[in-house]
Design goal:
There is one protein chain. The chain is mainly alpha-helical. It has 9 helices and 6 strands. It is elongated and about 90 Å long. The two termini are 39 Å apart. It comes from Lachancea thermotolerans (strain ATCC 56472 / CBS 6340 / NRRL Y-8284).
Length: 334
């Protein structure tokens, strides 16, 4: 287990304020006030940049964040596996004043910043009394241009076949990363996607029930009204919120068809087949929206986790390749 930074307080599992009942986050255990926060990929808690001593300008450079507690093995996957994670950062644009991540196969976030960097470089060279064009010409003449252009695009080469059989297959760390990614792809993500489909089907059923219970009834009333009262009814319709039952069910189970459910409804009943039938239900307020937001957030988090695992796999593979070349180098020297 690692050691917490001096500025980080002891871990607390408290999720709500004991006085106000509000949900609390971060190492400070305070409610969300709109301040910039980052989500931890280990424990799924949210943390203020200011509390973590991270400048807000680094916001776009975070690739995969792990809080101090996960990095020490107190929370998150490292608590049980022993493999303590580290926060991964995107490479910063080379222009000093820019804090955006580099574009693919580049040291800059954009072509404009690449030009700006080179212009600044030329300006510094010329300020020292040198001819910038002459300096660049000499650099190109003294370098292998074709080799220079390929740099950074080829990565670490794979050892020749036969020198390192089972190089990747025999590595426990690589197998663990592959296992984590495979579990997300084959188990966790499909399960959440299935839950989302179930929620969408159930919400559609509730809407159908409400249509049968109230929309049809209001249309019948409007149709039977005299022309004398039609204007008054229209004004009333605009100002009155349409009736609808809450519809919450703890298991989101469609108990019967909407056409079978609607005739059994009675306004005096609170529940029918465990479906909440309250017209104004503060207990389950916006239950569908909250659940959908939660499930979609989980899917986004899983996609981020897959990206992080793919990067960690690539890093580990490169480490293994380099180990082989180091061994080869030692044997040649011997």
């Amino acid at each position: 287990m690692g050691v917490l930074p001096e500025w980080c307080p002891t871990y607390s599992s408290r999720k709500k304020d004991p006085v106000t009942g509000e949900e609390v986050f971060c190492i400070c255990k305070k409610p969300d006030s709109g301040e910039l926060m980052v989500g931890c990929d280990g424990c799924d808690d949210w943390f203020h940049f200011s509390c973590l001593k991270i400048p807000q300008k680094f916001n776009e450079l975070v690739f995969s964040f792990f809080c101090p507690y996960c990095q020490c093995g107190i929370t998150g996957p490292g608590a049980s596996s022993g493999n303590l994670p580290k926060t991964l950062w995107r490479r910063k644009c080379r222009l000093p004043e820019c804090y955006k991540p580099c574009a693919e196969n580049s040291k800059y976030c954009s072509e404009d910043h690449a030009v700006s960097y080179m212009c600044n470089l030329i300006g510094r060279v010329e300020s020292k009394g040198f001819d910038a064009q002459d300096v660049l010409r000499q650099m190109l003449q003294n370098s292998d241009l074709e080799k220079f252009q390929k740099m950074g695009h080829e990565g670490v080469p794979t050892p020749p076949e036969g020198l390192a059989p089972g190089l990747f297959e025999g590595d426990a760390r690589l197998r663990d990363l592959e296992s984590q990614a495979d579990k997300i792809r084959t188990l966790t993500r499909p399960e959440i996607e299935q839950q989302l489909k179930k929620l969408e089907a159930y919400v559609a059923w509730v809407k159908r029930v409400n249509h049968l219970l109230f929309t049809s009834a209001s249309e019948d009333q409007d149709g039977g009204s005299s022309s004398k009262n039609s204007r008054a009814l229209k004004r009333k319709k605009k100002s009155t919120k349409p009736k609808s039952i809450c519809g919450y069910h703890p298991e989101l189970r469609i108990v019967c068809s909407a056409e079978e459910f609607a005739p059994q409804y009675n306004e005096s009943e609170i529940e029918l087949y465990s479906v909440c039938c309250k017209l104004r239900c503060p207990r389950h307020l916006d239950w569908a929206g909250i659940q959908e937001t939660s499930l979609r957030f989980q899917l986004e988090t899983l996609e981020s986790s897959l990206e992080r695992l793919a990067l960690l796999q690539k890093i580990r593979e490169d480490q293994l390749k380099m180990q082989v070349y180091k061994e080869l180098s030692k044997s040649k020297q011997a």
